[in-house]
Amino acid sequence: xxxxxYIASFSETSADMAARHGLNIIYAPFAAGxxxxxxxxxxxxxxxxxxxxxxxxxxxMCSYFIYIADDDAAENYGRxxxxxxxxxxxxxxxxxxxxxxPPTMHYxxxxxxxxxxxxxxxxxxxxxxxxxxxxxxxxxxxxxAAGIEEVILYFNVGNKPxxxxxxxxxxxxxxxxxxxx
Length: 181
Fold this sequence. Notes:
Blueprint: E1 6-9, H1 12-21, E2 24-27, H2 29-36, H3 39-52, E3 60-68, H4 72-93, H5 107-117, E4 128-131, H6 133-145, E5 150-154, H7 162-176
Parallel strand pairs: 1-2, 2-3, 3-4, 3-5
């Protein structure tokens, strides 16, 4: 069978492309929130576009940052590491000069502005799965109900120690993944 292709969708333009070509789609939940109001309306829009064009909708995926935290101190640490990742890795990679960015990338200027002004307390389900395992399971159940078939998880962001990242991955496989088998 052919290699499955996914269009990463941060905009209506990319979702239209996926629907037009009958390709799978993958969302960043924060972008789906900005463009559509959430993952559920994003997936519904994609399915409607595919059907209107006579194409079978492909699989819908999304990606999330994740940090399993059992108490307030651990959650604060996870939020601080996420903010460090945004500040030191994401913002420098995004185009921030409207004169140099192509028109199709101008929506990134809004994303940059949000990230520059974001505080760790602002981080929520649209950007990171954070908290105890039970809370993350509840969040992922909502993601599943929205029509998302697969979730990519980013554990190793924010310069966390390797042993911690491995422990987080182990905890996910033991405490969270069984809820989705």
